[in-house]
Fold:
Amino acid sequence: MPMYRQSFLLTLVFFLLTFSVAEAQNYQRQRAEMVESQIRGRGIRDPLVLEAMNSVPRHLYLPSAQQRFAYEDRPLPIGFGQTISQPYMVGFMTEVIRPQKEFRVLEIGTGSGYQAAILAEIVDHVYTIEIVDPLGERAKNLLNRHYDNVSVKLADGYYGWEEHGPFDAIVVTAAAEYIPPPLIRQLKDGGKMIIPVGSPFRVQQLMLIEKKGEEISSMALMPVRFVPFTSSD
Ligand code: SAH
Structure:
């Protein structure tokens, strides 16, 4: 190869590398700001949650056209009519289950995979189910590249994932008209479930369900708007 061409290529590689390092640093700065203002600033205090949200590159879980909005204070489209939740909602839902290192958590609605990644930073194992195959496939590839403690299944989450239950916590990220009974069965004694309940496209209530022996308690935490929980039937 002629010398001039070689040095041109080297210069090109140098610029590309500089550009990608600068871009990564830029995203890292935006992420730190997001955690300060949107997460800690609104009362999320669990250091495990704050640390996880500081370290997971949220932009990687978005289609490329959406990546530059990754750290904004809103949900974003991820294709197939679905959305990645607003960062605060992810922080809130993660904190409310009081995640511990030894937890096995079930998530319904993998979507982008971002919520699963946040959980995987904190807990022992995350089982996550997605009903839209191409979304599930995309998230599975991404999550498998970064984590060895996440299992993704393409199925209707209504039925849960019985062979891996019971779970310390269940996080449902699509709004159901009622709480699927199989999910209550697959919750451990003392376990917590967070789930938006209500009609599709209307304001729903984010409910915290706790199981204590035979007793199931539920508490409405805040009005929310999630994409609907769909069914395979
Ligand atoms: N946790 C996701 C949020 C995705 S939005 C994230 O961090 O990006 C909710 C997701 O729930 C959508 O991807 C939707 O396809 C999925 N979903 C809806 N009904 C479902 C069902 N019955 N079983 C599994 N996933 C479902």
Remarks:
- The pocket of S-adenosyl-L-homocysteine is lined by residues 82-85, 108-109, 111-112, 114-115, 129-132, 135, 156-158, 173-174, 227, 229-231 (CB under 6 Å).
- The first strand starts at residue 76 and ends at 79.
